[in-house]
Design a protein that fits this description.
two-stranded antiparallel ribbon, 5 strands, globular
């Protein structure tokens, strides 16, 4: 049913693992488990899944049972049997497992970069290209002049930094709450492809980034993002010339901040119907690009390459997970079927919610959080102004997964 997605997920994760351990062996270095918020990855992802499981089961049950303990347990069991099927557990285990392996290998291969390629860097060439694109001006000088307000600096710094915890959080959301399981596979498959292509781009065109190569251009900025850049400078110094412990995380081309935030925006556009959420994620993408240049994390070419990575990963992940792109790629609909989301004879999502026989609604292709209100079908399009949950794309997408 999802054979191509299985092959891609497992194949990419296995390839990244082989490359990581082979490189570590050749360099006589250790493979390190990257840490983030909530600790190392082997602990972080199970905690996220466990927390999401509780959020999915408990608030919904308490609401429907009106805080009656006996009724609450009944609704928890009902939700468990309806939503947490074998297909769901396969998606959660395979998706999160392969994503974690890919991400951990990405961090290690990125850390090995200076030991593999030495001092070879293309910062001067990329910086010269920036000046050509900005008509002889440095992009940082232009952006500091246009947006050099304290409140704006703090805003884009916050947006740049919340990317870090949102990476695992959004993976967990899509694989756990996707009403059409194919959307969960689409999201996580696109993610592993993007992180893998990003790793390859680091080795194709090694560069530190303008904040590291030309630090005097950014010395007047003091935000959380600039503090992070400084900490990465010291961690790189420690790995290269200190005790060698930990990971160095400095590489500019291509920008995975750009790639991943664009990938989020595309997934939201194609799998979520709510226009407000569309605007939030597209605004996040646009402000992230400004932040990459404003704080000196990336060159313009890095952002362009990151956007190309996102588009490739989005399309390949969609095809692998059974999405059919319509209108020259501007919309899509799933062509895979599950025991919970059948398809019509024409190959489209039947647009029927069958987990609860008494509630057939156009939500099979949409993500719904446990606190969201249930909608009855009534007449066609009555709940959503005629938009269907089976087709996705600009303006008419179902909630993710």
């Amino acid at each position: 049913m999802y054979r191509r997605a299985y092959v891609l997920l497992i194949g990419v994760a296995a390839t990244m693992a082989v490359l990581t351990f082979a490189t570590a062996l050749a360099l006589d270095r250790s493979v390190v488990d990257p840490e983030g918020f909530l600790g190392p990855g082997w602990l972080r992802f199970p905690l996220l899944v466990g927390a999401a499981l509780l959020v999915d089961l408990v608030p919904r049950a308490l609401w429907r049972a009106r805080l009656n303990p006996r009724e609450t347990s009944v609704h928890i069991k009902e939700r468990w049997h309806q939503h947490w099927t074998r297909e769901r557990f396969t998606l959660v285990a395979l998706g999160i497992g392969c994503f974690y392996v890919t991400y951990a290998c990405y961090r290690n291969l990125k850390s090995f970069l200076p030991f593999v390629l030495g001092d070879k860097k293309y910062d001067n060439e990329l910086h010269a290209l920036d000046k050509v694109l900005f008509l002889g001006n440095d992009p940082s000088a232009v952006l500091h002049t246009l947006f050099g307000f304290v409140w704006f600096e703090q805003l884009i710094s916050t947006i740049y930094l919340w990317y870090l915890p949102m990476v695992p959080v959004l993976v967990a959301i899509w694989v756990i709450w996707s009403r059409n399981i194919s959307f969960g596979y689409w999201f996580v498959t696109s993610q592993v492809i993007a992180w893998t292509l990003g790793t390859a781009s680091y080795y194709m065109l090694p560069a530190l980034g303008p904040g590291f190569a030309f630090p005097w251009l950014y010395e007047d900025i003091s935000t959380g993002a600039s503090d992070l850049l400084e900490s990465l400078f010291y961690s790189r110094t420690n790995v290269l010339w200190g005790d060698g412990e930990g990971l160095q995380s400095t590489a500019a081309f291509a920008s995975l901040h750009t790639a991943i935030t664009l990938l989020w925006a595309l997934m939201v556009q194609y799998t979520i119907r709510n226009r407000i959420i569309h605007w939030i994620f597209w605004a996040n993408f646009g402000l992230t690009i400004i932040a990459t240049l404003y704080f000196g994390w990336h060159y313009v070419a890095d952002d362009i390459a990151g956007a190309m990575i996102a588009i490739v990963a989005f399309y390949v992940g969609g095809v692998a997970s059974g999405q059919k792109f319509d209108r020259r790629g501007l919309t899509s609909h799933p062509t895979t079927t599950t025991s919970k989301v059948p398809l019509t004879e024409g190959g489209r999502d039947a647009d029927v919610r069958v987990e609860d026989p008494s509630d057939a609604s156009p939500e099979a292709s949409r993500l719904r959080f446990p606190w969201s209100r249930r909608k009855r079908r009534g007449t066609a399009g009555a709940d959503d102004g005629g938009a269907t949950g089976s087709g996705t794309g600009s303006g008419a997408a179902g909630d993710p997964a």
